[in-house]
Design goal:
The complex is a heterodimer. By secondary structure, chain A is of the alpha/beta class. Helices cover 38% and strands 20% of the residues of chain A. In chain A, the strands form three sheets. Chain A has a seven-stranded mixed beta sheet, sandwiched between helices. Chain A has a five-stranded mixed beta sheet with strand order 9-11-10-13-14, sandwiched between helices. In chain A, strands 1-8 form a two-stranded antiparallel sheet. The N and C termini of chain A lie far apart (42 Å). By secondary structure, chain B is of the alpha/beta class. Chain B has two domains: 326 residues, 3-Layer(aba) Sandwich (Rossmann fold); 31 residues, no CATH class. In chain B, 47% of the residues lie in helices and 9% in strands. Chain B contains 14 helices and seven strands. Chain B has a five-stranded parallel beta sheet with strand order 1-2-3-7-6, with helices on both faces. Chain B is globular, with a radius of gyration of 21 Å. The chains are: A alpha/beta, B alpha/beta. At the A-B interface, helix 3, helix 4 and helix 5 of A face helix 7, helix 8 and helix 14 of B. Chain B: It comes from Lihuaxuella thermophila. Chain B: Its cofactor is thiamine diphosphate. Chain B: It is an enzyme of class 1 (oxidoreductase).
């Protein structure tokens, strides 16, 4: 199997889905001639032309709204928000319209739409190019929220998202784009939305995570194995719908749970995961549920020591795992 | 405020029921069937509307957004559309919905809070009303873009009020529509007030239509109480869109005779003299009826006959809506997704276990 980067997996999925289905088109800022500011859509305009790879004005609400209207007409739009931070003007369209069109039309109309957005920090992106925004949407039924961590999952899940009948928010950690590489099959495949995956088997402590921090957790697990601590790592891959069974299974493996994400602690999706565990697996627990998350500050600072302090890393995660192991 | 509303617009039929020179030309091109159709729909919509207000007062439907006074804007524009065209309405467009093919009983169901009321018959390209204000305008632009991508001839129309023109979505949609020259029509019913706020507080530009200039497509101001002018202007906009000439913004200047909704009291913010002026002297139905009668196309007896027919149809639709059995409580979870997720399924099962009333 060829080894490709996380961002190449995005490009390949788009290229293949656009070839497979003429209803699929891409729209967003700089997605055409520039091939995207991260170059996720590189080569698409040459292959499919400017009508199917639409360079839009700076107009996030209309990017989402136009995509919603086109989806109602039977198209399969894939909208790009240049940075997840800039999704805010489109929140009304996503929450009030995309998430509710099927529901309020009693199933007559649907919104098969994908909104891709690079999120996350650790790239010196400063306050407005570093945010994690998933918690704004996880409490909005009608949306699906996918946050892959590996090239294999990126490609398979993005294809599933494009083929899905409902609106999917597809968040790509921008630090992963060129940092994370992995094997990806040449032939067509999909990864189902709503299925978590065990990325490492272990017996002492369970770590539940997604995105960049999943890789930090795997690195921590590798280090801790040398210290004799066996870490079980579950990659959620999809936040909504949450794979509860996989979460509960992963908890039962060790009885000790650490939930890790870069989004802020308060209101972050880890709270929901913790609540599910507390409600449904309380008697499996041998220690209090622990969360390691982004601090509750309004944004990721630009100043390097502050950005470093905000970001999680394998050492911070290893420390938290050790504490749990010793509990 | 009134002064602003009265700046120049396209008018073919005066409030007295007299055709202008241009109006005569349009009138002479219309079939007898079309001429009577304008009347019948406006009259029907008005009777539906008045009845709905009564039903709300009787507690038989929920809060209702009345449209009396805006019949010509809705009927004239909707009759210019074809079956293939897409409609993205706001919450006051029941007249448009009826003409598009939404059965009356379903429109009543909608106002009873029943989501089935939003399900149009097969082939009717009518979306449910958008309530958040202006959010449907980019949707129409998106559907128009899809029509262009699919190389089809359908156009998409967004209906909205004057208040919506202050929202970002209106401007983002206009800009997008202008840049990509999509076959969309942005149809604004400027009824003078967004709940209590007059248009002069909504907009520094004295008209909605002139805003189109900034987006480089035509903005046309039309007497929204003149059904002939609205129909003709809309038809021209549709022809332009189908010919690939891009979007049009239409401002139909009209007046909401009643309150914003049945939950509002318009006497708190509108002078009685202003309301009287519109109700007594500018009514869309009165002026058109005058014309038909002067042209010998409608008699008092035919008028009464038609009103009796409307009443019968409305009665029957109310009966049908009121006898329709509401969906059971577990319908709460229907259509959240195409296929319910384990989470919704679990909550639906819990609801059943609690013995959700059937």
């Amino acid at each position: 199997m060829p080894v490709i980067s996380y961002i190449d997996a995005v490009t390949q999925a788009l290229m293949e889905e656009m070839k497979r289905d003429p209803r699929v088109f891409v729209l967003g800022e700089d997605v055409g001639v520039r091939g995207g500011v991260f170059r996720a859509t590189v080569g698409l305009i040459e292959e499919f032309g400017e009508d199917r790879v639409l360079d839009t004005p700076l107009t996030e609400s209309a990017i989402a709204g136009v995509a919603i209207g086109a989806a109602a007409y039977g198209m399969r739009p894939v909208a790009e928000m240049q940075f997840a931070d800039f999704i805010m003007p489109a929140v009304n369209q996503i929450v009030s319209e995309a998430a509710k069109i099927r529901y309020r039309s009693n199933g007559t109309w649907s919104c098969p739409l994908v909104i891709r957005a690079p999120y996350g920090g650790g790239v010196h992106g400063a306050l407005y190019h570093s945010q994690s925004v998933e918690k704004i949407f996880t409490g909005v039924p009608g949306l699906k929220i996918v946050m892959p961590s590996t090239p294999y999952d990126v490609k398979g899940l993005l294809k599933s998202a494009i083929r899905d009948e409902d609106p999917v928010l597809f968040f790509e950690h921008k630090r992963c784009y060129r940092l994370i590489k992995g094997e990806v099959p040449v032939e067509d495949y999909t990864v189902p939305i709503g299925k978590a995956e065990v990325k490492r088997e272990g017996t002492d402590v369970t770590v539940i995570s997604y995105g960049l921090t999943l890789h930090f957790a795997l690195q921590a697990a590798e280090q801790l194995a040398k210290e004799g601590i066996s870490v079980h790592v579950l990659d959620l891959r999809t936040l909504i719908p949450l794979d509860k069974e996989a979460v509960l299974e992963a908890v039962a493996k060790t009885g000790k749970v650490l939930i890790v994400h870069e989004d802020n602690l308060t209101g972050g999706f880890g709270g929901e995961v913790a609540a599910v565990i507390a409600e449904e697996a309380f008697f499996e627990l041998d220690a209090p549920i622990k969360r390691l998350c982004g601090p509750d500050v309004p944004a990721m600072p630009y100043s390097p020591p502050l950005e470093k302090e905000f970001m999680l890393n394998p050492e911070k995660i290893a420390k938290a795992i050790r504490e749990l192991a010793e509990f | 405020m009134l002064g602003q509303l009265e700046t120049t617009y396209v008018q073919y039929l005066s409030p007295e029921g007299k055709l202008s020179v241009a109006g005569h030309a349009v009138w002479n091109q219309l079939s007898a069937e079309m001429k009577i159709s304008f009347y019948r729909w406006m009259s029907f919509v008005r009777m539906f509307d008045r009845r709905s207000v009564i039903l709300q007062r009787q507690g038989r439907i929920g809060t209702y957004a009345a449209l009396e006074g805006q019949e010509a804007a809705q009927v004239g524009s909707a009759l210019a559309l074809s079956k293939e065209d897409w409609i993205f309405p706001s919450y006051r467009e029941h007249g448009v919905a009826m003409i598009a093919g939404m059965p009356l009983s379903q429109i009543f169901l909608y106002w009873m809070g029943r989501v089935e009321g939003c399900k149009p018959p097969e082939g009717v390209r009518l979306l449910p009303p958008s309530v958040p204000i202006a959010t449907q305008i980019p949707h129409a632009v998106g559907a128009a873009w899809a029509s262009k991508l699919k190389k089809e001839t359908s156009v998409a129309v967004a209906y909205f009020g004057d208040g919506a023109t202050s929202e970002g979505d209106f401007h983002e949609a206009c800009n997008f529509a202008g840049v990509f020259r999509v076959p969309a029509i942005l149809f604004c019913q400027n009824n003078g007030y967004a709940i209590s706020v007059p248009f002069s507080r909504q907009s520094a530009s004295p008209t909605v239509a002139e805003k189109a200039k900034a987006y480089n497509f035509p903005g046309i101001r039309v007497d929204g109480n003149d059904v002939l002018a609205v129909y003709d202007v809309m038809k021209q906009a549709i022809e332009r869109a189908r010919a690939g000439e891009g979007p049009t913004l239409i401002e139909a200047v009209t007046y909401r005779k009643g309150p914003h909704t049945t939950a509002d009291d318009a006497t708190r913010y509108r002078p009685a003299s202003e309301v009287e002026e519109w109700v007594k002297h500018k009514d869309p139905l009165t002026r058109y009826t005058r014309l038909l009668k002067a042209e010998g196309l409608l008699s008092d007896a035919e008028e009464r006959e038609w009103e009796a027919e409307c009443k019968a149809q409305i009665d029957s639709a109310i009966k049908e809506a009121e006898s329709s059995v509401p969906a059971p409580p577990e319908h709460l979870f229907a259509h959240v997704y195409a296929k319910l997720t384990p989470n919704e399924l679990r909550q639906q099962q819990q609801l059943r276990k609690r013995g959700g009333r059937r």
